């Protein structure tokens, strides 16, 4: 049982994470790289986003709780929103700057938490993904500069294979890896330049994962539509 030392506030989080790990572990092989050695918060986790399976797979790869940001639409219906908030998930609007979400995330960091963000702005693969050269959204740089907390780049590869039901029978590989921390932007520093550096760190980590884990072509990121069309 992971997370038993974290206190009462995280009991719902670990109950859900361990339940989902129990469901997903029989249908995929989860490989981790560096996730068990990370320090306690405050810091920010910035990861690419391939599929709806990413949050539980990422959470299950770490031995510390992560307070993820998730789009507000996922908090409906009301009972599911209650479950999400019980797991410390922070709702965020995507159409305009969400000052409430920013304040909540800053408060979590001040209290020593780890905040997880998907700075691509949604599910991305191919040319729209940071892993293939696309830019990141500005939210992560704003959160880092306001909090002064370091950002650790992370990469998940293979989770998109789970969109094809028959893949569950062959237990596809899913890799979750984390890189070295990147210091928050300094006051007056060009945030776009800082985001470009973070994006490059994520791409470099992706390259390391491909080499170290000898990933086959079928494991490399695809859109859900590409997965459904190929049946793999």
SSE blueprint:
Layout: H1 11-24, E1 29-33, E2 43-47, H2 54-61, E3 67-71, H3 78-86, E4 90-92, H4 99-110, E5 114-117, H5 139-147, E6 151-157, H6 167-170, E7 173-178, H7 191-212, H8 224-230
Parallel strand pairs: 1-7, 2-5, 2-6, 3-4, 3-5
Antiparallel strand pairs: 6-7
Helix pairs in contact: 1-2
Quick recap:
The protein is of the alpha/beta class and 232 residues long.
Helix content: 25-40%
General shape: globular
- Going by helix content, strand content and strand pairing, the class is alpha/beta
Q: CATH superfamily, please?
A: Glycerol-3-phosphate (1)-acyltransferase
Across the major sheet, the strand order is 1-7-6-2-5-3-4
Proportion of strand residues = 15-25%
CATH top level is Alpha Beta
Question: What is the β-strand count?
Answer: 7
Q: What is the chain-wise order of helices and strands?
A: HEEHEHEHEHEHEHH
- Poorly predicted runs are 1-5
**Cα end-to-end separation:** 32 Å
CATH topology: Glycerol-3-phosphate (1)-acyltransferase
Instruction: Supply the number of structural domains.
Output: 1
Largest sheet: 7 strands, mixed
Structure description:
The protein is of the alpha/beta class and 232 residues long. The protein has one domain: Glycerol-3-phosphate (1)-acyltransferase, CATH 3.40.1130.10. The chain is built from eight helices and seven strands; from the N terminus they run H-E-E-H-E-H-E-H-E-H-E-H-E-H-H. It has a seven-stranded mixed beta sheet, with helices on both faces. Helix 1 (11-24) crosses helix 2 (54-61). It is globular.
